[in-house]
Amino acid sequence: MYRLLLFLRRIHVFLIFLLLEGLALYFWALSDTASGARLLAVSGGAFEGVYGAIAGVEGYLSLRTTNELLESRVEGLENELNFYRNYFGDARVDSLRAVDAFPHRYVVARVVRNSINRRENYLMVDRGWLDGIERGMAVVSLDGFAVGYVEAVSENNAICVSMLNSQFRVSGAISSTDHFGSISWPGGDPRMVRLSEVPKYADIARGDTVVTRGYSFRFPDGIRVGTIEAFETDEATASYNIDVRLGVDIAALRVVVLVKNREVLERMELEQQTLEQQSFGGSGDGA
Predict the structure, then answer these.
(1) Does residue 264 sit within a domain?
(2) How far, CA to CA in Å, does 246 sit from each of 48, 111, 181?
(3) Rounded distance, CA 58 to CA 144, Å?
């Protein structure tokens, strides 16, 4: 014990340095969502073996639930494919598939790290740029509910901003009326998010379905979010604040689907280029 104390005394300056450096990185990450996600992606690369092993054990224990979801999803997709074949004919469906006519690409990934009890929560998945994953891709559950979006990507992993993140924003709408607003997480209950800025003349009711709108670019149109639990009028803005119960339990996620929408990613790049040009005061003279 005495030797241990002597050893700690010799390296105490180094230990204090590591502590202060860790605190600095922690508070830097908290100050900005994108910075925090990039930091997690870097650290995740170092510990991906540990996270993968833990996720493997958890995944094995939850195989029954995952398989039931996969079976239900496959059954639904087979029925849709059968409908299109009967309606359009086998040759037409095969030709569409051959020319890659659809704008979306789907990648299934395992969740290897997750959090729900912080103000800024993330998921780490075991797919990275080697698998075609890009920043901005939407993340949905196996049964088709919104989960989050990809914020940072490494070689074999990606960090996704969860809907349970105080910085999360996406455009949402009430499916029955198409009135839209902004979806965010106010904190607290991990099963609830808030849809705000919906005009108070909108005809809404408890139990109505809330879906995503493509205005925010990150999600395709019509991805289910959940159902209306309660709502109240904000007289200052003449709009509703609506509590939405999520259709997926993010805390229980083991497998997710990453959705790549090529058109949306192109629009995001165009918007980013425009903002950069404005910030640097583009010449505007066509030269």
Answers:
(1) no
(2) 29, 18, 16
(3) 22
Q: Determine the structural domain holding residue 77 and report its residue range.
A: 42-166+252-256
Q: Are 111 and 248 in contact (CB under 8 A)?
A: no
Residue owning tokens 């910085």:
167
pLDDT in tens, the chain (287 residues): 556 666 666 776 666 766 766 656 555 554 555 555 555 555 555 445 545 554 454 555 455 666 666 656 665 665 666 655 565 565 555 554 544 445 567 888 999 999 999 999 999 999 999 999 998 899 999 888 999 999 999 999 999 999 999 999 999 999 999 999 999 999 989 999 999 999 999 999 999 999 998 777 778 888 999 999 999 998 888 899 999 999 999 999 988 999 887 666 676 677 777 777 776 665 444 43
Is residue 126 included in any domain, yes or no? yes
Type of residue numbered 117: N
Cβ atoms 175, 200 nearer than 8 A: no
Classify residue 272: in a domain, yes or no: no
Residue keyed to tokens 């902004």: 182
* 62 and 175, same domain (yes or no): no
Residues 159 and 49 in one domain: yes
Q: Provide φ and ψ at 61, rounded to 5°.
A: -70, -25
Predicted TM-score of the model (pTM): 0.64
Distance CA 210, CA 173 (A): 6
Domain membership of residue 79 (yes or no) is yes
199: domain CATH number?
2.40.10.350
Which two tokens mark 248?
């997926």
Instruction: Indicate the number of domains in the chain.
Output: 3
